[in-house]
Automatic annotation (TrEMBL):
Gene3D superfamilies: HUPs. Residues 148-169 are annotated as: Disordered. This is Universal stress protein. SUPFAM superfamilies: Adenine nucleotide alpha hydrolases-like. It comes from the Bacteria. Belongs to the universal stress protein A family. Residues 14-146, 160-298 form the UspA domain. InterPro entries: Rossmann-like_a/b/a_fold (IPR014729), Universal_stress_UspA (IPR006015), UspA (IPR006016). It comes from Streptomyces termitum.
Length: 300
């Protein structure tokens, strides 16, 4: 039994899972139920529905459609409750568009869990437009889960893989989420810091002095990772941690080490481009190509 499991049930924040009746969303609800059980928090299933009449010569039945929306979410509630009787499960229909409804629901949540369609031919569209918009604008961690035969594609064992970048302050939200999750599951952590050789013009006397003081570029990166992990190792001394420093792009290194992971945790900085909010290249690569569920944690 993990130390987290010995603590009394928490009721301050629920885990919210978006459901729409698809196999992907049901896999997300199942993953969220396991996590709620591990963390001893309630689970809230949410389905967005708002009557929007179509400009078509068809008989439209708003009452019937609303009933179908309630039936859908309550069927998911019954299924999850039967599988996880220890979890306090509730369900609701949110009267709004999917993106707006999920963003409102995640504000007071422990995390938001959504489904992903998985691998496909066009990488930019694997996650779906709703999912990308939610992840880009969310203020709480968002976990994307793929479906495999109706179940969450999550190995029963494996490490929590977390990407660490920048200073300890930069990566504090990501490491907090990773260590909390590992502690609740009784899992180990592999903390990955990827680095690249800077172009010649990027070298500065100050940065090279820091690297020299650390004994070279590789020891400098290793020291940076140790310093970022130090407060979390002290807070969670019972969580095994492996440090992994590798030359390469962050997305590439994380993907090549994610094969046996049960969860990949990455950060997301708020970026706005010509087409709106962006999730960043590392989170984008992880969400579309990692074989395991991916948690995207807002930073800054």
């Amino acid at each position: 039994m993990t130390r987290e499991a010995q603590e009394p049930r928490r009721t301050d924040r629920a885990i919210v899972a978006g459901v729409d009746g698809s196999p992907e969303s049901l896999a997300a609800a199942e993953w969220a139920a396991r996590e709620a059980e591990n963390r001893r928090v309630p689970l809230r299933l949410a389905h967005a529905w708002r009557w929007e009449p179509l400009d078509l010569p068809l008989v439209q039945d708003p009452t019937g459609l609303e009933k179908a929306a309630h039936d859908l979410v309550h069927a998911a509630e019954a299924e999850i409750t039967a599988r996880h009787p220890e979890v306090a499960v509730s369900a609701s229909v949110l009267p709004d568009t999917p993106v707006a409804a999920l963003l409102a629901a995640q504000e007071e949540a422990e995390m938001l869990v959504i489904g992903s369609r998985g691998h496909g031919a066009v990488a930019g569209f694997l996650l779906g437009s709703y999912g990308q918009q939610v992840i880009a604008a969310a203020t709480r961690p968002v976990v994307s889960v793929r479906a495999r035969d109706g179940e969450a594609a999550e190995p029963p064992t494996g490490e929590i893989l977390v990407g660490q970048q920048g200073t300890p302050e930069d990566s504090e939200p990501v490491l907090r989420f990773a260590f909390e999750t590992a502690a609740a599951r009784g899992a180990a952590i592999r903390a990955v810091r990827a680095w690249s050789l800077p172009p010649l013009y990027a070298y500065s006397p100050a940065s090279m002095r820091l690297a020299d003081d650390a004994g070279g570029l590789v020891p400098f990166e290793e020291k940076a990772l140790r310093e970022a992990l130090a407060p979390w190792r002290e807070r969670y001394p019972y969580v095994p941690v492996t440090e992994h420093v590798e030359l390469g792009s962050a997305g590439q290194v994380l993907l090549t080490t994610s094969g046996a992971a049960q969860l990949l945790v990455v950060g997301r900085r708020a970026r706005r481009g010509a087409l709106g909010q962006r999730i960043g290249s590392v989170a984008h690569a992880a969400l579309h190509l990692a074989p395991c569920p991916v948690a995207v944690v807002p930073q800054g």
